[in-house]
Amino acid sequence: MPDIKITPLGAGQDVGRSCILLSMGGKNIMLDCGMHMGYNDERRFPDFSYIVPEGPITSQIDCVIISHFHLDHCGALPYMSEMVGYTGPIYMTHPTKAIAPILLEDMRKVAVERKGESNFFTSQMIKDCIKKVTAVTLHQSVMVDNELEIKAYYAGHVLGAAMFWIRVGSQSVVYTGDYNMTPDRHLGAAWIDKCRPDLLITESTYATTIRDSKRCRERDFLKKVHECVEKGGKVLIPVFALGRAQELCILLETYWERMNLKYPVYFALGLTEKANNYYKMFITWTNQKIRKTFVQRNMFDFKHIKPFDKSYIDNPGAMVVFATPGMLHAGLSLNIFKKWAPYEQNMVIMPGFCVQGTVGHKILNGAKKVEFENRQVVEVKMAVEYMSFSAHADAKGIMQLIQYCEPKNVLLVHGEAQKMEFLKDKIEKEFKINCYMPANGETCTINTPTKIPIDVSLRLLKAEAVRYNAQPPDPKRRRVVNGILCVRDNRLSLLDIDEMCDEIGINRHIIRFTSTVRFEDAGPSVKTAEKLKTLLSEKLEGWTITISEANISVESVLIKVEGDEDNTKNIYVSWTNQDEDLGSYILGLLQSMVQ
Amino acid sequence: MKLYCLSNDAAKPCFVLSFKELLIMLDCGLSAHSVLNFLPLPPVPSTRLASLPNYTPPHLNDPLLEGELKECCGRVFVDSIPEFCPPLDKVVDFSQLDVILISNYTCMMALPFITEDTGFKGQVYATEPTLQIGRFYLEELAEWVSGGAGGAGGAGAARRWKELLHVLPAPLALAARPRSWRRLFSAAALSRALARVRVVGYDERVDVYGALDATAVSSGFCLGSANWVLRSAHEKVAYVSGSSTLTTHPRPINQAALRGADVLILAALTQTPAHNPDHMLGDLCVHATVTLRAGGSVLCPVYPSGVLYDLLECLSAHLDTAGLAGVPLYVVSPVADSSLAYSNILAEWVSVGKQARVYLPEEPFPHAALVRAGRLKHARSLHDDAFSADFRQPCVVFCGHPSLRFGAAVHLVELWASNPAHAIIFTEPDFPYLDALAPFQPLAMKAFHCPIDTSLNYSQANKLVRELRPRELALPEQYAAAPGGAAPRPHIAADVPTVLLRRGAARALGARRSMARATLSGALAARVAPRDVRAGLRAAPLQAALRVRDRRVSLDVAPPAAPGAPRPQAPRLDCSAPDVDALVHALGREGMPDARVERSADGCILHLPRHDTLVHVERHATHVFCQGDAAVRQALRRAITSCLPHV
Ligand SMILES: [Zn+2]
């Protein structure tokens, strides 16, 4: 039994950063290469020394696959390729390849320029890294080498997000990355076919949540924003530049239009226009509705949403500001937060998950005071709202995906241990398959059945089919083939015995047994033969019995009736050595009939 | 494997391949040459066309022919709604087709003829750009053909002339099987047909009923254009249709995927082998510049996608350098806006150079920027208010249809024909330009022929075939060397067995299969211990449980037989006769020491009187005659088996 081995270097029972090692059929694949946003030291990158304590890493990894552009999935990629020295192939979709470098650069600036960190990758390193990326399209079957094949499926989590199917020989694995099973305002739902992988590695961010209906959440969000600005408050919505931001913009834009509101709405990033351009270019990755109408109206041209300028922070009066980054861990969103937090008419809406260690995580857990590096303490009087807009599959969605692709095993990553435990139980009960949830650094081994390719003689299969179809249909009936297995140059084939003899140029030596049974039965031999045939048909279900005059045959067994009209008949039963079971059974039948 | 050819037009192919008990249609091209025999359908009534004289064949008085034919400058045209020549429907029953694979949008225009009202139940596969741009082509065609105003002989279809070909003048007299020509399908049939298409990506393996995989691979000809590779466990068929090895805007051709096929089917080579597309593009720019400088306008009758994008890119750049940056460019088509917008969201289907622009992010094609700058304008029709208000001359107008039998181009030629300052430049290779112009004679405006066909020419195709090394090659007969006596023509010459096809013909291809691919479970494999039969070959008898699911065969450990009834056993391969002395010895061990041996020329007979048994040993058979005692028989079996060499 060949094994599949999985070791999470990140995302094992946590949501911090995804980086999972997969080994099967002698190939090692890295699934995502994310960065932990909660740390400022070396802990933010995966521990590559786990793979190889010293020396080049390239020979240990056959390829790296990046599921989507979020930094917790691709943030460590330039570090790995430019600083650790990985030179092997890297795969991601076209939109991911287009957008990831922008987010990486954005993060780099925050880390190096604002926080003054050294030993971080440079702009040039990001560019060099992305140059090495092979972009793939959906459903394209990509041969990484002669044995390793990968294929991307639509994941619906952000623009360009993909799940990957990975095959080596007869073994296959699906890695979901982050995915979403319900279509939203700009993306479609994740989709996969019934590919029956040996293992499904799925995220489980919302393992225990059954999210309330999308529409309710949207209404709730709009109501809260509206109430706050009506009272003259300022609403801060920390987002990542691409992804959820576009969906929330579409939502606010249509609401402002419908309600005829005049409060200013800002998107605080030079990237806005550029970001929206990416959505225009890759509109084939958005949902049906946007794709259908894009010629008439581009959903990403906003009328009410204007670019933000830093000087607006201190402007009096109501406003809504979208600012990056999304977890309030650095940058502009954090600056605005510091200014607005002490006033209770203001509000911050966290539209996504926040990892531990970030300000977002602290205030969501009810912190009323936040302390910063420079001992600055900010009082949090503003309203803090959490609205789950992150496009992750909920428990129902995860179960749905399992149903779609019918895996033989499931492995949970990118979630919290307790919640995983609950989902693991549910999956094992409902689907009767094994479910695993290794922690970081822990290796999980999964046995898979071997399947060896073999060529089967069509003559053999056709003969079997004739026999099978001659019988009344019965779904429980077992089908059996008999042949000679040949092994040549490590290639297997199953041949009919005569084909085999032809093939190797030998004549078969056939051994035949013949016995005689005496039977008192008046009348012509043909009549006797017919009686025998009736008897045999009753007893030999599933066999083809043919009769011609006084000769009956079943496979190689021949039965011949001889004798005069009114006399005792001689019944000869003859069969080849191979059909000994059948021959002796028939002989036994006839002998007991005679007595 | 068998291949049927259903199209007469090698550039608009339609084949049906029967392969692994499946019927697979490769492309469904619609030949439109037939429309040249008809009078143009002007989008607005034309007094000139309406007043063309009737034509009556000499010495014929047939009232049924009345009004069907008109004459213009010595040439006779049918005054009726134009008809097309769909693929032959007599050879293959379309209701039996399992799959239709489409290579590019120029080769799918007959789809509704195949799939609608024929009982078709199969699947249709095409890439996303093929489906979308194909839709533009078809919708435009349907709208042009149904939107004609007056001129043509009303609602009634002219039919009588088809019975009287023998008395009509050329070229009408040479029309090929006009009785099989059909009017274009309805818009409803068209949208039903397109709704059937399933979209695939390049290099996506499509499972076809479990029997084989079909993969579309880039062919480099136009956006989304594909060659198809069909693969079963033992055979590979490559269908190469509309391919290009030139560098233009689409993704380059993927040759590696086509290598080493058992059968290579080659179709849709260039229609203008004597014209180099690069030179033609250069000529076009020059003719346009000269015409515009002299105050004339330029008409390019084109399809709404494809080379149009290259024309816009090159011509606008050329005019800029020629100091004609102020000349407006117009694209007139019911699908102009969609086509121009759509081309700019196909980042994954364009060349690497164009793709690099998307990463910036900028549109891959410059025409979006030309539209924003107001340099390029597009309109649904010539009568759009916004368009007519804005129309300035001199200008360049791109509009359909390249046959000049329907569409806005008909009106513009009518309008400009008498002015020698204007020019019409033909770029689409589908129609002979003089035939296209015939119903507009006499013509004062200049006409230039600059056909741009980026499909493989013969030397490129020959080179490709050499590189791909197929075992067998199949071609439309038009691509073979001219028959003896005829003038030589460019052709495909390959040193592999070549099968030629003509419309209506069926040819057997490839070797017969004898094996099917299956999987063997590890558990079963572990139970068999093959023995050496000879150097490099090991063998063992094998009994296996057979499972067939979605046509996929798998072999696993057979469950134990139900008690009672016997079941077939795995065969034993006994290679030669038992050694008789050894056999006598073995019988002794089994408690039968009394064997008498009689030797003869053929072999020998062993006599076991106490057990009433005879054993005939010959070279290829051993025959045991014994009585019904099972214990005795088993002992005999053991003895014989022990001295037989076997697998
Ligand atoms: Zn994500």
TrEMBL record, chain A:
Q: Which cofactor does it need?
A: Zn(2+)
Q: State any GO CC term.
A: cytoplasm
Query: Does this UniProt record's set of keywords contain Metal-binding?
Result: yes
Q: Which CDD domains match?
A: INTS11-like_MBL-fold
Q: Which GO terms describe its molecular function?
A: hydrolase activity; metal ion binding; RNA endonuclease activity
Source organism superkingdom: Eukaryota
Q: What keywords were assigned to this record? A: Cytoplasm, Hydrolase, Metal-binding, Nucleus, Zinc
**What InterPro entries does the entry give?**
Beta_Casp, INTS11-like_MBL-fold, IntS11_C, MBL, Metallo-B-lactamas, RibonucZ/Hydroxyglut_hydro, RMMBL
Task: Tell me the compartments it is located in.
Answer: Cytoplasm; Nucleus
Q: Which residues form the Metallo-beta-lactamase domain?
A: 16-210
| UniProt-listed GO biological process terms | RNA 3'-end processing; snRNA processing
Q: Where is the Beta-Casp domain?
A: 245-363
Q: Which Gene3D superfamilies match?
A: 3.40.50.10890, Ribonuclease Z/Hydroxyacylglutathione hydrolase-like
By sequence similarity, the record places it as follows: Belongs to the metallo-beta-lactamase superfamily. RNA-metabolizing metallo-beta-lactamase-like family. INTS11 subfamily.
Its name, as the record gives it, is Integrator complex subunit 11
From TrEMBL, chain B:
Gene Ontology CC annotation, any one: cytoplasm
UniProt-recorded name of the protein: Integrator complex subunit 9
One of the protein's GO biological processes: snRNA 3'-end processing
The listed locations are: Cytoplasm; Nucleus
Gene3D superfamilies found in the cross-reference section: Ribonuclease Z/Hydroxyacylglutathione hydrolase-like
Q: Where are the transmembrane segments?
A: none
Q: Which residues form the Beta-Casp domain?
A: 308-437
Predominantly, its location class is: cytoplasm
Tell me the keywords, alphabetical order.
Answer: Cytoplasm, Nucleus
Q: Name one Pfam family in it.
A: IntS9_C
